[in-house]
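Amino Acid Chain and Its Fold in Token Form
===========================================
Purpose: to set a sequence beside its fold so the mapping can be learned.
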Amino acid sequence: MRNLKFVLLLIAAWCTMTLVHEAGHVLCGWSCGGTLQSADFLPWHLPYSIFEPDPQPLITLWGGPVLGVLIPVTVAWLVCRDEGWFIAYFCVLANGMYLATAWVSGDHYLDTPKLLAHGAFPLSIGIYCLLTIGFGYVGFRRQCVLLLSPPPVPPASNSPSSTDDNHGIHSDHT
């Protein structure tokens, strides 16, 4: 049952991460006056959103990874459940790993090369990746251990008959 719950939470975390990340791009793009031309939110595709024109591309581009972390962490904090933190830490780790691997791949369709092309400071991307990967890994690992560990064994009964060799007679020998 623990393994099924873990797999279902991973699916929920992936869907949440892709949806919130892409919604961050869309919300920021719209808030800056951009016109959304095309978008795909399906989590089994590579979600994307295309704005043309996009008056503030850096804000639109940073909206995905920033809101993709802040929204799940805020929801987990408000809900205060282990499952919420599992999903939140997954989102933190995944957003950092996405920007880091996109940087290494250099694929011009991904966020990091777009950020760099529009003038984002490489140091800001590096700091974002270090913080999200570091905190995300520690938190996500903790939640994985918590969810996959066997339930604690209840303590043995402390009834007098099971712990007292004197059959319930207490004596003070000092």
User: Anything to note?
Assistant: The longest strand covers residues 36-40.
